[in-house]
Amino acid sequence: MEDKTNLQSLNGLANKQPWVLLYFSTSWCAPCKDMALILDEISMQYIDQLEVVKVDVDEQMQLARECDVKGVPTLVLLEELNKKSSLIGGVTSTQVTDWLDIQLHTTSEQLT
Prior knowledge:
Blueprint: H1 7-16, E1 19-25, H2 30-45, E2 50-56, H3 61-66, E3 74-79, E4 82-88, H4 93-104
Parallel strand pairs: 1-2
Antiparallel strand pairs: 1-3, 3-4
């Protein structure tokens, strides 16, 4: 899981992978610490499909606002840097993989 937290680094990631998963968290959030372990697994499981980027909300408030983050932990999936979907709150590894499998196999045009 990469720890790049600015828009310029996201532009670079978009050139490597069309999918970027932003993991919004804070250092003081207990559920975020649990999610960090899950996201480490996810980053390895989906290594050929997406980049996972950890974003500390306290340090990147503007990016959190741009992605409409209301609480942590929040996962935001970007397709070519356009927001496609989000998952809010502490969730299990299975819930994250189920969500990602659906999102990664559904094109933006199919979403309404």
